[in-house]
């Protein structure tokens, strides 16, 4: 059976090769490696392909920045094996994405808490590397064979100057607060089993183009749920950095704590 996606020769890609896709790229399984290439639909124009290719190349620069074996926190990023002009070779992560994993498994609170600490630790590394992720969602985390968790999608990321003041940086509304807020939404989803949809453009003027974190009234309640206070802190700005979020998560000494 063929997928709806085309390869560079204009032929339909076999469905069994497709690991996943987003709005600009498709990820294929080839020889035990995940290959990320620009998305091609049968109706895609040359200009569509050019935009998707530019997204791949921007993301490659982010991967290059974040591949740092001298910092143990970089292990929370899926490993980039090689980049070419039209594709990115990534390590194959066997347990798939977090969103799909949770539809089939019910991990313990201990496992979930370890994920949240790993997420916060890796986000601290990403921000320390002067990168904003922008698109943090359960579908963009992968689970390795040992259930360690990894960030895998930087197609919307902002690659900033290395000397950036990350607590002050603002890329058209995207900030470290927004990244931490989105991570709080992932924690909420894992804890409650309910996706927390956040639209940064819901109430802004169409001509504005800036992203805005929503008012508290647009977010679900966190009372009486596990880690509710930490989730709330992600959303209300209590955690100004991913380091402070990690400290709060690391201080949870029992999975029964709220």
UniProtKB/TrEMBL annotation:
Domain of life: Eukaryota
Gene3D superfamilies: Transferase(Phosphotransferase) domain 1
Span of domain Protein kinase: 13-258
Record-level Gene Ontology MF annotations: ATP binding; protein serine/threonine kinase activity
Protein's name in the database: Protein kinase domain-containing protein
């Amino acid at each position: 059976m063929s997928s709806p996606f085309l390869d560079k020769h204009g032929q339909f890609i076999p469905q069994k090769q497709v690991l996943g896709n987003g709005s600009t790229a498709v990820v294929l399984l080839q020889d035990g490696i995940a290959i990320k290439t620009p998305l091609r639909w049968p109706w895609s124009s040359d200009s569509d392909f050019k935009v998707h290719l530019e997204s791949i190349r921007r993301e490659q620069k982010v991967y290059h920045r974040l591949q740092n074996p001298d910092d143990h926190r970089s292990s929370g990023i899926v490993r980039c094996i090689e980049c070419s002009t039209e594709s990115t070779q990534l390590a194959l992560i066997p347990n798939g994405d977090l969103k799909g994993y949770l539809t089939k498994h019910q991990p313990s609170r201990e496992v979930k808490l370890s994920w949240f600490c790993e997420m916060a630790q890796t986000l601290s590394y990403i921000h320390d590397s002067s990168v904003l992720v922008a698109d943090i969602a359960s579908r963009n985390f992968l689970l390795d064979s040992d259930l360690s968790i990894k960030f895998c999608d930087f197609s919307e990321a902002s690659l900033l100057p290395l000397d950036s003041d990350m607590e002050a940086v603002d890329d058209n509304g995207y900030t470290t607060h927004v990244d931490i807020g989105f991570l709080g939404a992932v924690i909420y989803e894992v804890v409650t089993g309910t996706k927390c949809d956040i639209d940064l453009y819901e109430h802004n003027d169409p001509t504005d183009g800036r992203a805005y974190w929503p008012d508290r009234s647009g977010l679900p309640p966190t009372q009486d749920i596990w880690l509710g206070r930490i989730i709330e802190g992600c959303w209300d700005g209590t955690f100004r950095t991913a380091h402070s979020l990690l400290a709060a998560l690391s201080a949870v000494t029992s999975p029964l704590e709220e």
